[in-house]
Amino acid sequence: MSNDTPVPTTVAALEADIAARRTRLAQTVDVLAHQVSPQAILKRQTDDVKARFAAATTTPEGDLRTERIAAVVLAGLALLSLVVFARRRRG
Questions:
Q1: Phi, psi of 58 (to 5 degrees)
Q2: Treating both helix axes as pointing N-terminal to C-terminal, what angle do 38-57 and 66-90 enclose, rounded to 10 degrees?
Q3: How confident is the model at residue 3 (pLDDT cuts 50, 70, 90)?
C-alpha cells in the first residue's frame, strides 16, 4: 500500500480492498499477456515494416521517391542477372 492510501480498518473494507487489487492485477496480467502474444508481436512487427517501407518510398508530402524505387529495382535486376549468368556458366 502506498503512503497516501488510507489503511482499511474493517474486515469488509479489507476484503473490498483485496478484491479491487485482485481485479486490477488480473487486468494488468491480461494486458501483459496480450502484448506478448505471438499475434500481437507479429502485428507490431508488420506495422513497423509497413511504416519503414512507406517512409523509405515516399516523401513527407506523400509523393513517391522514384529515385529510390528505381535504384532498388535496378539493384534487384543486377543481382538477378548475376545469378542467371553464374548458373549458365556452371551448366
A1: -135, 155
A2: 110
A3: low
CB atoms within 10 A of CB 65: 13
What is the rounded average pLDDT of the residues 17-23? Answer: 96
- What phi and psi values does residue 64 have, to the nearest 5 degrees? -70, 140
Average pLDDT over residues 34-61: 93
pTM of the complete model beyond 0.70: no
Q: What's the chain's length in residues?
A: 91
Collect all residues with Cβ–Cβ distance below 8 Å to 65 and sequence separation of at least 6.
56, 57, 58, 59
What lies within 8 Å, CB to CB, of 41 at 6+ separation is: none
Q: Structural domain boundaries of the chain?
A: 8-57, 66-91
User: What does the pLDDT read at residue 25?
Assistant: 97
